[in-house]
Write a structure and sequence with these properties.
2 domains, 80% helix, 443 residues, Na+/H+ antiporter like fold
């Protein structure tokens, strides 16, 4: 009992020491500045890595997944919490965040072994289409009514319809990053875990197409000329086409290395991810789809898939700490305070529709009842692609697009906390997780 109590108290003690040392460093350095200082960014990264890991250990003791703690740590460390890390110090770390997202996307693509999913193709497609068919219309009609009655988007019908349509498409998105993180932490294996990964990637592919169509419709309805709508779709299709092409080439390069060399696989994958991020920065596109394609190619076009996934697993913990703590740091609590009723409504409607759509799709596809009951929880979390949609909507449709983007971010924040908790509970109930003690003993 004494040993257990000391183990529980240790993270709190270490957090106290970490806060004291970091506060002293800020004091000796003259306090936090509001301009970029390289030393502050280095200190911010180190602090977030340690602080988020310790908070993750604390929440795990209460049965929640560690990434929930990483998100919470990001909020606590930021300007709306303890103020230990400010926006100026974190901004240069955006590239580190993109690098982490690329490595997570590698894992999402690498988990899609086509030969393994072929026998379950009908049920996976059914669950993906079931979600889209129920979530999109329900979210669109509900927020068409909400926006119309509240006037939050103005009184112009075309804008209200466009805003509701774009928000409806956003509600369909999910988070491969969160799914991969929870599966990695719990070491879950089985039909539920496989269904979560397969459907998550399929839904994101469908949403990319739907978002392009919704953007074109919104351009047309709000008075933009035909070139505006077609230009939006053209740019979107170009971005995805480049992502698939470069991702495929990156996948072939990784196969060549993995087939010839046995060492330094994690370091090599980090280098490839850095190249992908550099290309995306140059071309102003997202690295997510590019990295998913690369992982998909390695897993399905070679015999190196297992070594590829093992290499990613060895670097997974710091990657998850960086990605989710920085995601938490972006949370603006003032926005949450303003829009939480609408965001909460979106979360409730979306969870109900995702659950029912997944059940219908699984049963239509002949999936076993256990999968139908538990897999839906893996589709609650949102991050990555949905945040990209928020930025694009705000850019393409000012000023009302900025309001939609703000509502999207508020909804994502709630789902980022809710999704991992629900997913871990379902995986445990499905009997697909390894016991922590057994897992630890194997390390």
């Amino acid at each position: 009992m004494i040993g257990s109590a000391s183990e529980t108290a240790r993270p709190f003690v270490l957090i106290g020491i970490l806060l004291a040392v970091t506060s002293l460093a800020h004091h000796l350095g003259g306090g936090l500045s509001h301009e970029f200082q390289p030393e502050e960014s280095a200190l911010a990264l180190g602090f977030l890595l340690l602080f988020a890991f310790l908070v993750g250990q604390i929440v795990r003791n209460f049965g929640a997944p560690m990434i929930t703690g990483f998100l919470l740590a990001g909020i606590l460390a930021g300007p709306h919490g303890l103020g230990m890390v400010n926006t100026a110090a974190v901004e240069p770390l955006r590239l580190v965040n993109l690098l982490a997202l690329s490595l997570i996307a590698f894992a999402a693509g690498g988990a899609m072994k086509i030969s393994r999913f072929r026998t379950r193709a009908r049920s996976l497609v059914g669950m993906a289409l079931g979600q889209v068919a129920l979530v999109l219309p329900l979210a669109f009609l509900s927020f068409l009514l909400v926006f119309g009655l509240t006037g939050i988007m103005g009184s112009e019908p075309a804008v209200v319809v466009s805003a509701a349509l774009l928000f409806g498409v956003f509600c369909v998105t999910n988070s491969p990053a969160e799914a991969i993180a929870v599966l990695s932490e719990t070491r879950a294996k089985g039909p539920v875990a496989e269904a979560i990964i397969g459907v998550t990637v399929l839904v994101d592919l469908l949403v990319i197409f739907l978002f392009g169509v919704a953007g074109a419709v919104a351009h047309t309805l709000t008075g933009a000329d035909d070139a505006g709508g077609s230009g939006f779709v053209g740019g979107f299709l170009y971005e995805q086409g480049v992502s698939f092409l470069v991702g495929g080439l990156a996948g072939m390069a990784m196969i060549t290395y993995l087939s010839r060399f046995q060492k330094n696989v994690p370091l090599f994958l980090l280098g490839v991810a850095m190249v992908i991020v550099a290309i995306c920065q140059k071309m102003d596109i997202s690295p997510m789809m590019m990295a998913i394609t690369a992982g998909l190619v390695v897993e399905n076009a070679s015999e190196e898939g297992e070594r590829f996934m093992v290499g990613l697993h060895h670097s997974s913990l710091p990657v998850f700490v960086i990605f989710f703590s920085l995601s938490g740091h972006k949370v603006d609590l003032s926005v949450m305070a303003e829009l939480w009723p609408l965001a909460l409504l979106a979360v409730v409607l979306r969870v109900a529709a995702v659950r029912q759509g997944t059940l219908w799709g699984a049963r239509w596809g002949g999936e076993e009842e256990r999968v139908a009951r538990h897999a839906w929880s893996g589709f609650v979390g949102q991050a990555g692609l949905s945040l990209g949609f928020a930025v694009m909507i705000a850019t393409e449709f000012p000023p009302w697009g900025e309001k939609i983007a703000t509502l999207i971010v508020a909804t994502i924040v709630i789902n980022e906390f809710l999704g991992p908790i629900l997913m871990k509970r379902s995986l445990v109930a499905a009997g697909e997780t390894r016991r922590e003690g057994a897992a630890d003993s194997q390390n």
